[in-house]
Amino acid sequence: MSILNDEKEVLAADGQRRAAILAADSERLDHLLADDFRYIHASGKVEDKLQYLASISPGKFLSLEIGELDVRTYNGVAVMLGAIDLRRTAEGRIIEKRHQFSGVWVRNDGRWKLSVFQNSSKSTG
Fold it and tell me: Which residue numbers delimit the DUF4440 domain (predicted)?
């Protein structure tokens, strides 16, 4: 498999991940996450796969727009770095934020799965 094909596959898998989050489709999301998945929030809170899946609820996320994006692949591992603009609901309010993120994807049984995803607040300076 070529590096270019790997990058395209990772980008496609990440698009499926975002679509599953917006649709609150935990079953589809489950298939895109590695069993040892960890999600690190901008606040520093860490969730495992089951905790993260339980946190995805209908109407929570209104949009997830990727800005700058860089994908690098290394023999079955892909590192994704970028920015995301999100709109979500919390306690009856709409919140808009921009985060920097990093994600580590691993090829497992011929499929790309997200192993780690970390958000950090985007600096305005």
Answer: 11-114
Tell which CATH architecture fits domain 3-121: Roll (3.10)
CA 54 to chain centre: 15
C-alpha span between 26 and 84 (Å, rounded): 21
User: What pLDDT is stored for residue 125 in this prediction?
Assistant: 46
Model pTM? 0.90
Q: What share of the chain has pLDDT > 90, as a percent? A: 85
Lateral strand order in the sheet of 33-40: 46-48, 33-40, 111-121, 93-108, 77-90, 61-74
In angstroms, the first-to-last Cα distance of the chain is: 40
